[in-house]
Write a structure and sequence with these properties.
Helices cover about 10% and strands about 40% of the residues. It is mainly beta. Strands 1, 2, 5, 6, 8, 11 and 13 form a 7-stranded antiparallel β-sheet that branches. A 6-stranded antiparallel β-sheet has the order 3-4-7-12-9-10, with no helix packed on it. Strand 9 and strand 10 form a beta hairpin. Helix 1 packs antiparallel against helix 2. It starts with about 20 loop residues before the first helix and ends with a strand. The relative contact order is 0.24. Calcium ion binds next to strand 13.
């Protein structure tokens, strides 16, 4: 697969670390947003959005400064390792996008995480997540295929110049329509080796 295929540009706003407010609230409250923009965002915000998934890989706790490899068939925070291996990254190894822990989608090989959501058929949803990459080894560009319902998209992250102290998390959004009472979400690393895409702070909300 060519690297240019469906890889979005990397100009998305960088997410500040240790963020606790949910994104929409934070966006509206920030002083950097003009009052007009804030008003538009309030108007655009769904009045009855319901969160159907919020996952930050905080449990099980991994000893600080280390990580734990998860193998095919293992579960973490409700996600199943569908293929390959995944590393659950503990606090003080690198800074998570949210909370203390995150995952590297490559353990010793490209891994995939899948979970099933309870969804309302014909309802529209928005998936949000934070993406970075393990800067400790190549390739520089980490790629992940995100599949949810009938939507699939490849996201890239360039780790050039990044360190474990400055991972540079980027927030992404993907919208989808549910067609059944269950919808599967999958994050699949497309990067070879032991240094893969880093993932954290996944949320799914219903939207109107
Ligand atoms: Ca986390």
């Amino acid at each position: 697969m060519s690297i240019s295929e469906n890889v979005p540009t990397l100009t998305t706003v960088e997410v500040p670390p240790s963020r606790h407010l949910r994104r929409r609230t934070a966006a509206v409250l920030t002083g950097a947003v003009s009052s007009t923009m804030a008003a538009l965002m309030v108007l655009a915000a769904p009045a009855q959005a319901a969160t159907v998934l919020s996952s930050s890989f905080e449990y099980p706790r991994v000893p600080g400064g280390s990580y734990e490899q998860l193998d095919h068939g293992d579960y973490v925070d409700g996600w199943r390792v569908d293929s390959g291996t995944v590393d659950l990254i503990g606090r003080n190894y690198w800074r998570a996008a949210d909370g203390r822990q995150s995952v590297d989608l490559n353990g010793t090989s490209a891994g995939a995480l899948t979970r099933r959501l309870r969804t309302d058929p014909r309802q529209r949803y928005e998936l949000q997540f934070s993406l970075a990459g393990n800067p400790q080894g190549g390739p520089a560009i980490k790629r992940v295929r995100v599949t949810v319902g009938d939507v699939s998209r490849v996201f890239g992250f360039d780790t050039s110049g990044r360190t474990v102290n400055r991972l540079g998390w980027v927030e992404h959004t993907l919208r989808f329509n549910a067609h059944a009472r269950n919808t599967e979400v999958t994050f699949e690393s497309l990067t070879r080796g032991s240094y893969g895409p880093a993932l954290d702070d996944i949320q799914v909300d219903s939207i109107h």
